[in-house]
Amino acid sequence: MPDSEPRAVILMGVAGSGKSTVGVSLAKRLGCPFLDADAFHPSANVEKMKRSIPLNDEDRLGKRKDHFFPKELLESQFAALERPADAIVVDARLPLEDVVEQIVSALKSPPL
Question: Cβ contacts of residue 12 below 8 Å, gap of 6+?
């Protein structure tokens, strides 16, 4: 990644798909910090997930106080959500080294 252009890399996928493993390896390869989204869940949400109870909109937005965004707008946000045009899609079934290499190579390529 060019040093002159700050970037954030967001790894997305279902639970157990290897996001954290890839993130740690990718961060080491790029020489940048890795922040695992799991570390940002409040303990109540972690406990729900440990009991196989999926999180809902209330878990994500209900506890926010003094925020201008009302939870009633969440559905419209999902409806308008689009995959970024410059998303890097990698098959998580590949070996870790191949996944990381594909991401690093794609990050070095000029945007489309």
Answer: 19
3-state secondary structure at position 100 = helix
pTM, whole model, 2 decimals? Answer: 0.74
Question: Which residue matches tokens 């990381």?
Answer: 100
Query: Three-state SS for 10?
Result: coil
Question: What does the buried/exposed string (b/e) look like for 10-43 if buried means 16 or more CB atoms within 10 Å of the residue's CB?
Answer: ebeeeeeebbeebbebbeeebeeeeeeeeeebee
Question: Please, which residues have CB within 8 angstroms of residue 58's CB and are 6 or more apart in sequence?
Answer: 71
- The whole-number average pLDDT for the span 77-83 is 81
Mean pLDDT for the chain overall: 86
For the chain, domain boundaries: 19-107
